Amino acid sequence: MNNPLPLLQRERLQLLYLSLLLCSTLLIGSLAPASPAWLSRFAALVSDSYHAWQPRPASTQVVFIDIENTSVQAHGRWPWPRHLLAEALLRLDQAEAIALDMLFAEATTEADDLALAEAMQQLPLVNGVFLNGPQARHLTAEGYAQLLDSSLFQIQHAQLIQAQELELPTPLLSGASPVLATLNILPDADQHLRHYPLAFWVDDLAVPNLGVQLLRLAEQQPLLIDGRQAQFLGQTLQLDTLGRIKLSYYPLASYQRIPLADVLAADWDPARLAGKLVLVGVSEAGVTDLRATPVGYLPGPLVHVTLISNLLEGHIIQPIATLHWWLGLALLALLLIWIYYWPSALWRLAGYLLLMISLYVGAALLYRMSNLWLEAFYPLLLVLVAMLVGELILFTRHKRQGEQLQSAFSSYVAPALVKRIVQQGSALQLGGKRQELTLLFSDLRNFTPTTEALETEALVELLNQYFGCMITQLHRFQGTLDKLMGDGIMALFNAPLDDPEHAYHACLSAAAMQQALEAFNARFAEDDVRRLAMGIGLNTGPCVVGNIGAAGRFNYTAIGDAVNTAARLESATKGLTDLNGRPVDILLGPSTYALVKTRLGQYCAPVGAVQLKGKAQAVEAWALHWRDLAADLWP
């Protein structure tokens, strides 16, 4: 198996990730339709940018007659004398319908008020009322009668914003208007205007908003509201819990705007507004109520114009259906699980980033092409949570895996190799694989007198010092300590990490061990029982290497005929001499000699055919004269 982390631990971590992902999906999916205000603000930071993808202009059927800077320069600061406004309104007489985004709550001169009232009576005009303003009052019987004819009648189970007080136009101007409408637009929690209330409850009357009332007057079509749905102009509108629809804003330059100064000019052509819907309002700096919107600050009247244009052009934004929302989240969760199992952290990061970009672009395209609104923030939040949780779990998993590898190998592999093993742990085949190895066996000669002469504590101390010197030389040349066997050592080369020069390194390690033993003995007198002698056998061949043993009790080792041959070669060194009569301390098998003879042939001498215990046929072997080698390499 590739992963040394115990199977049960891996399964628990995977189950933990899947459980957390499922909980996150359900929680985020449920939050989206009714998230708290603070979370909605974060969502808006993402979705407000969709409006920059709006490819369509505002409707040319609705015109904003704007009391702006040039109009003020020509006719004075707002508010103007009402006879001047009356004159301007009469010049709009070819419009299909007119709405006034202004409130005439107080009387002025009798002549001016009468002139304005007479002008209103001649026009298809919507006059405004303001809810819950600073001078608002509770609805009186007279006010109720004024609003009754302007209210909605085909309405049931409607969840609308409730207003307790309002400001009405003066009785003269209120009675002169065909219909009344509310001027209010309720902002979101962050004071940005993203939604438009179709109507408000005032007492038991459902009073339409200005844009809606203008369209009702012009099109002579009813607005029907039933719970969270409305029917208007042949369209089905999905409402939020406050009876609002989401606005789709247009590029500012696409709104049709005419300064009121142009209307009052001598060369004004009333035919410019023939068949148009007209909204009259103020945008002069210091007078108008500039409102924060997803596309920047706009004069309040343009928000009404946006609603009218949305309805006329069929640009009403519709939310994603609940079923599609949950199916999309389920698909997203499956993609996140797929990415979680990618082996490379860099590829996983790229996958998460690509998924997040795709989510945002997909949501913006849904808005651009189909007027469907997907709050990308919530699936993006799910990706972010899944990425953080997944990478934390994988980090924990890899950390535990690294700790286990380090614990498993640090006792018999050089520290530098342990670091590489931990870094490359996923590439190791720790369950057992066939691989060519060079095996090293060493054993102390004539050690029995030493064991008999020394006290147990002294003997253990001597062996610890000896083994410490030998293991250092093994690690020096990428050798792996397999096991200590009494006073013997078994070591592997070319495992657990690949070493293309394993035979050469094993020979160097054997020579270094003999040199280290000579230095070790130099501390003692010639006749001291603590002086040690050692024989080493080296052999190369195919072995099975890995964690071998039973459940809960296994060891990293190698098995195979090459292992047995190396052990027998070490035993054969006792009293052996080469063909030149030189004593043999290190004996190489034929496969090892074949791999190193090009580089170490001058240090090797044949010993002829050696009959190894348990072998039917004698084995050709070579002695490695380590003193000659050490003198050249480590003088």
UniProtKB/TrEMBL annotation:
- Per UniProt, residues of the Guanylate cyclase domain are 438-570
Q: Pfam families of this UniProt entry?
A: CHASE2, Guanylate_cyc
User: Does Lyase show up as a keyword for this record?
Assistant: yes
| Gene3D superfamilies (alphabetical) | Nucleotide cyclase
Stated EC number for the protein is 4.6.1.-
SUPFAM superfamilies attached to this UniProt entry = Nucleotide cyclase
Bilayer-spanning residue ranges: 323-342, 349-370, 376-395
The record's SMART domains line, in alphabetical order, gives: CHASE2, CYCc
Q: Which UniProt keywords apply?
A: Lyase, Membrane, Transmembrane, Transmembrane helix
Molecular function in Gene Ontology: lyase activity
The record's listing under PANTHER family reads:
ADENYLATE CYCLASE, TERMINAL-DIFFERENTIATION SPECIFIC, ADENYLATE CYCLASE, TERMINAL-DIFFERENTIATION SPECIFIC-RELATED
What is the name attached to this protein's record? Adenylate/guanylate cyclase domain-containing protein
